[in-house]
Amino acid sequence: MQFSAAYNNAYLFEGTDLKILEADRMPISIHLREKKFKTIDIHWSDTIKLYLATDGFQDQIGENSGRKYFTKRFRKLLMNISSLSFSEQKKYLEKEFQMWKGNKKQIDDILIVGIEI
What we know:
Helix content: 25-40%
Order of helices and strands: EEEEEHHHE
Oligomer: single chain
Radius of gyration: 15 Å
Number of domains: 1
Strand order of the largest sheet: 3-2-5-6
Number of strands: 6
């Protein structure tokens, strides 16, 4: 499989091993310094789970902290829940987001896609 992305990294789990698929730091649309997107070849021998996400979850400001959720915390969250079924992961993600956001307004759209191959 081949992977390319703009701005947002993807996360691939093979068992409990995490591989971060790094995105290029440029938009998909027209850009002042357009260049070709790098392509990452992915090979696996066992079942993998691949996660793609917008930055909406990570950029959300927490009610209690006044800070963003940030990518490092989001990556750790995925590591903690990746062994659960996708329906359980969805519940966990929704609960975590609501606890973090509290009464703050949601500031961006959120999309998280998990794929098991």
